[in-house]
Structure formats: C-alpha cells, structure tokens
User: Which sequence fits this backbone?
C-alpha cells in the first residue's frame, strides 16, 4: 500500500490507516537523517584520509570549529541581512499580488505588459546589482544599506508576480460561467473565487520568493560592502577562510529552510482542500 | 408584448399561451468578430417558446449547439442575431432580472473551500451585493436548510465538496440554482457524468422537485430515454449549424415513476425519437 492510499484510508476510517502513516512518516524522517549523517561521515573521511589542507578543503569538524569562532560576528551581522531580506520580501509579496490583481482585472494592460514581465523575469537580475547600488547611492549616499532592501524586492518580485498572475488566471470555464451567470463584478470574482484559487500558485511563488530575496540581499551586501552576512562572506573568502565561509552559508541555508518550512505550514493550514506538492504527503 | 407578435413557425399553440422563455429567430456564429479565427455557425434560426411550468428537453448530436442555446438563455453568451427573452424581457437588456434564472451546470462547480451550505449561499451573496435580490441573509439561510433537505443532503451541510460523491455534488449544484427561487431552471446535461443508477435516482428526484417548486425547466441532454422520461416536450436539433428539426410532445402520464420506462407508450416515444435521430 502506498503512503497516499493509507492516507485516504486514514481519513475515511479513523484509526484504521493511521498506524501505517505514522510508520511511513517516521521512516522518511529516519532516512533523511541517515542520509545527512552518511554524507557528513563521507566528507570527514575524505578530508581526513586524503590529509587535505583545512584552509582550502575544511572537514565538517573544521567547519563547526569555524562556526563557533565566527558566531559573535555572525549574530551581529545577521539582523541586518534578515531585516533587508524579510522586509524586501514582504514588500515584493504585497506588490506582486496587488499588481497581479490589477493586471488580471485589465486584460489589455496585461497583454501589453506581458512581454516586459517575462523579459525582466528571464534576465539574470542579480547581474544588475551594481546598478541598483549606484542608483540608490545617487538618491542618498548615507543610506546605501537601503540598496539591500531594494535588491530583495528587485530579485523576488517578478517570479512572485508571475506566480500570482498564473494563480489568478487559474479559473475553469464552468466557474467563469457561473460568475458570469450571477453577474459577478471583477472585485467579486476576486473576493469569492480568484484569491482562493490562486493561493496554491501564490504560495509556490512565496517559497522560491523568499530564497530569492535572501540571495538578492546577500549579493547586495557582497557588492556594496554594507555590514551584513554578504559582506562578511566576501571578506572571509578574501582571507581564504573557507571553513568560515561554509559556516556562514550553512547558517543562511538553515534560516531559509526554516522560513520556507514556516510558509509551507501556513499554506497547508490555509489550503486545507488540497495537498501541497513540495513536502509530499504527511 | 413584442415576443407575442413575432410569428413562430414552430409553436402553433404556443403563441396563444404565456411563454416564459422564448428564442426568436436566434442565430449564433462563433468567431465572427475576429479575423484570425474561422467563424463557425453554431445555431441557425432557432424559434422556441417554452410555457410557464413546462419541462422541455433539447436533444441533438454533440456539437450541435445545445449548450450554446442554454448559455444564451443564461446570459453568458450573446446571440448573433435574434433575441432570447425571459418573461418578455431580452436577456441582454439592462431590465433582465438575473434572479429569474437558475443554471445547473454539467459539472459540479462547488468551490472547494466552502462548505455545502456556504456554496449554496454564494449566488445569494453575489446577487444581494449587486442589488439583484432582496431579503435578509437569515431568510436565505433558512431556505438553504430547506433545500438541503429537499435534495436529501441532511447531515452534509458542513461538509466540503471533496468529501461528497459526484451525485451529491451535483445535488449541491442543483440547490445552488434554486436558492434564490428563480422561475426558470436551465440544466446543461446535469447528470451526464453520473453512473446510470445515480442518474435514474436523480431523474426521479428532479421530477419531484419540479412538481413541488413549479419551475419551468429547459433541459439539455444527449440521453434520449432521459429526455422522454422527464419532459413534456422534446426538441430535436440538427447537426451544426443547429436547427430545430422536430418537436415531440411527450404525453406520458404524470406523476412518472421507474415503471413509466417499461410502458408501451414510453418505448413508442423513445423509438420515435430515435428514428428522428437516425435520419439526421
């Protein structure tokens, strides 16, 4: 019996299929843990057995050691980076949903702007980081750190906009006919149907959007040298302290995964009528 | 009234009685406004008058414009030529009253995040906000409960659509069309996707509801037996472009039951209808 089958059974016959779900979930967690441990052991073994120079090829133990030493600086820098990434992310999210609503409500405008949106979404926006920093510095030199916020918005906005557009347009003919039948206004279409039907798409955009906002901020700091994780990473790499660089990247990875997991939790609460794709069945 | 003066070539007796739904020389051509698409004539010169309280079915080969006919009466589509009137008022005019018409769709359109009761009240919310219907929400909540028991969904008021079977979802769609008490019920192959047993059951239930609520029903189907079993009159459309090629009065006694399907007259009428079909 597959996990999906047992899930269905579980919901129909309370108690009946539950045990197998718990088991398979436990097995999944155990396998994931085992995978991580095996990978770390392999990495440590290669580094030790080949006698690699820890300055260039640090082992997991070296990385942990570096993390410990760099921790005070890291915790100083982290709030700056997180503030820019989270605030930029939220601005991009609100903007993308609002813009998508306006565009879906005005099909002509949408058609006119679509080439631009797809175009901007396709270019490596991160390559324009120096330009963003330059322009923000042009407005106010004392607020260069704002460029990191702008970077988060700039990198995360377009993919989230496209996700929201897809979401709001995700409406089947029958539902469209029903709305036309009752003479629903555009706002009513959104209020009663589109905002809900769009949620799965919007949440997918939100998950990748946060990772993008984080990248945007870190690269912004990297290039502008304003205090934060990005500039920290850039300086330790300059010092060829690879262990510390890996430690910093790991911390960022944990934070991003944590936020994505949080978004996923909100999603599964909000979209109770369908399963999310990213985490599989629970 | 303008629709009374329009000479109908089909209904010889319809003109003298009150017609609730009337199609007057209706043509529908798709894709005529855009040069890129090839235009397709879906319906041609359709004249059809349906009296208050009548149950009329429309049958025809697939793609003959059956659904188009219905969607024009629902105001979802506009006719290319001719007018569709409900109660003597053109559906496309501003005076058209949306609360006069209910539509039961081919597939259930219940919204997944709304419970059965909330799905039922959706049309009321929309129509009320737009000032198309009067009355307070409590009145409609009560009515929703009545309808839920009318179609036998007691105990499922707080269920979500994905917890219901296809037949039950279709019952929800039916109650959704009845909630604001329209006088016209348009049904677009409502039982087409259901298994034979559920279909038979819902056919009987529909007749019971029709009898109790005194609606006027325009029913689209490709099931000829279903059409004979339910209707007062069956209208036969030709292949595209759809034209009315025949109308058969169904003089079977009412109330009808499962036994009706076994009567000689039923078989006769069904055979007659099938003959018409072979000729198409």
Assistant:
């Amino acid at each position: 019996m597959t996990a999906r089958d047992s899930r269905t059974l579980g919901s129909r016959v309370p108690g009946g299929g539950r045990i197998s779900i718990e088991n398979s979930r436990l097995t999944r967690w155990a396998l994931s843990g085992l995978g991580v441990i095996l990978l770390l052991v392999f990495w440590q073994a290669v580094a030790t057995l080949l006698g690699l120079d820890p300055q260039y090829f640090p082992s997991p133990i070296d990385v942990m050691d570096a993390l410990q030493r760099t921790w005070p600086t890291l915790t100083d820098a982290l709030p700056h980076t997180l503030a820019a990434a989270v605030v930029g992310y939220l601005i991009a999210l609100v903007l993308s949903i609002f813009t998508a609503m306006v565009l879906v409500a005005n099909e002509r405008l949408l058609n006119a702007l679509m080439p631009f949106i797809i175009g901007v979404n396709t270019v490596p926006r991160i390559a324009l980081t120096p330009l963003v920093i330059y322009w923000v510095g042009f407005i106010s030199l004392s607020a260069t750190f704002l460029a990191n916020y702008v970077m988060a918005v700039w990198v995360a906005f377009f993919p989230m906009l496209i996700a929201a557009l897809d979401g709001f347009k995700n409406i089947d003919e029958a539902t469209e006919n029903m709305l036309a039948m009752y003479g629903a206004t555009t706002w009513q279409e959104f209020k009663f149907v589109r905002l809900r039907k769009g949620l799965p798409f919007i949440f997918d955009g939100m998950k990748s959007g946060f990772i993008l906002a984080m990248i945007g901020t870190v690269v912004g700091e990297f290039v502008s040298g304003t205090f934060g994780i990005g500039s920290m990473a850039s300086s330790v790499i300059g010092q060829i302290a690879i262990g510390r660089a890996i430690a910093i990247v790991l911390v960022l990875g944990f934070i991003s995964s944590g936020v994505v997991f949080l978004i996923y939790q909100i999603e599964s609460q909000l979209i109770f009528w369908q399963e999310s794709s990213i985490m599989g069945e629970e | 009234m303008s629709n009374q003066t329009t000479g109908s070539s089909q209904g010889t007796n319809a003109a003298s009685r009150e017609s609730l739904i009337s199609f007057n020389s209706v043509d529908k051509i798709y894709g005529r406004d855009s040069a890129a698409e090839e235009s397709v004539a879906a319906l041609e010169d359709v004249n059809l008058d349906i009296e208050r309280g009548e149950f009329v079915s429309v049958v025809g080969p697939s793609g003959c414009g059956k659904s188009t006919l219905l969607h024009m009466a629902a105001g979802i589509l506009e006719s290319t030529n001719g007018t569709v009137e409900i109660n003597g008022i053109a559906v496309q005019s501003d005076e058209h009253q949306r609360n006069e018409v209910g539509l039961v769709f081919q597939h259930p359109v219940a919204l997944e995040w709304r419970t059965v009761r909330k799905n039922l009240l959706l049309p009321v919310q929309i129509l009320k906000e737009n000032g198309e219907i009067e009355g307070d929400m409590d009145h409609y909540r009560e009515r929703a409960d009545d309808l839920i028991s009318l179609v036998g969904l007691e105990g499922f008021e707080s269920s979500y659509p994905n917890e219901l079977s296809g037949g039950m979802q279709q019952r929800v769609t039916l109650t959704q069309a009845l909630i604001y008490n329209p006088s016209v019920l348009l049904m677009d192959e409502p039982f087409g996707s259901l298994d034979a047993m559920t279909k038979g059951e819902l056919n009987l239930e529909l007749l019971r509801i029709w009898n109790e609520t005194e609606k006027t029903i325009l029913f689209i189907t490709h099931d000829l037996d279903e059409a004979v079993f339910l209707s007062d009159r069956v209208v036969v459309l030709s292949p595209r472009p759809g034209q009315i090629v025949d109308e058969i009065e169904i003089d079977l006694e009412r109330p009808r039951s499962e036994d009706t399907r076994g009567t000689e007259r039923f078989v006769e009428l069904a055979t007659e209808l099938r003959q018409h079909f072979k000729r198409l």
Q: What stands out?
A: Residues 1-16 of chain B have pLDDT under 50 and may be disordered. Chain B has eight helices and ten strands. The beta strands of chain B are 19-30, 40-51, 55-59, 81-86, 89-90, 101-104, 184-188, 216-220, 233-237, 244-249. The interface with chain A takes residues 71, 74-76, 98, 101, 103, 105-107, 109, 111-113, 122-123, 125-127, 129-130, 132, 160-162 of chain B (CB under 8 Å).
